[in-house]
Amino acid sequence: MSHMRTKLILAGLTIVMAVGFLAFAGVREGWVYFLPVDEFVADSSHQFQRVRLHGRVAEANLDIRPADLHAGFDLLGDAASLRVEYAGVIPDLLKGGVDVVVEGCRDSDGVFRADTLLTKCASKYETSDGQSPHGDPNAGRISS
After folding, report:
1. pLDDT per residue over 68-111, tens digit each?
2. CA 5 to CA 8: how far, in whole Å?
3. 3 near 44, Cβ under 8 Å?
């Protein structure tokens, strides 16, 4: 009986370790740093990691091709900028001067290759006097 019990304990430990490893690997894959453009450009420790960046789309060098599922633009911070190339469905609100969040990695050429692009547009949720429809000037705004 002790031989069977040893086998069951070893099998149980193996299963627990495998599930633990898979859980850890899955959670680790979902972790990304959320940084402003200036901090990303200044800090080389995140240069080739998957990160999420926020900034403003520059008016110049804006290349939006919805039919090709491609957008290229300069992402501006307060002092720095970064070239972003995005492949995927283009949000309708993407244009120069809009705040965006992009997620992806920087390549060896220094271009940020994004696979996620979210636009932030507080004015969509404001009335013409700058108030939200509910009277709170900050309701519906996305803060960065």
Report:
1. 999 999 999 999 999 999 999 999 899 999 999 999 999 989 89
2. 5
3. no
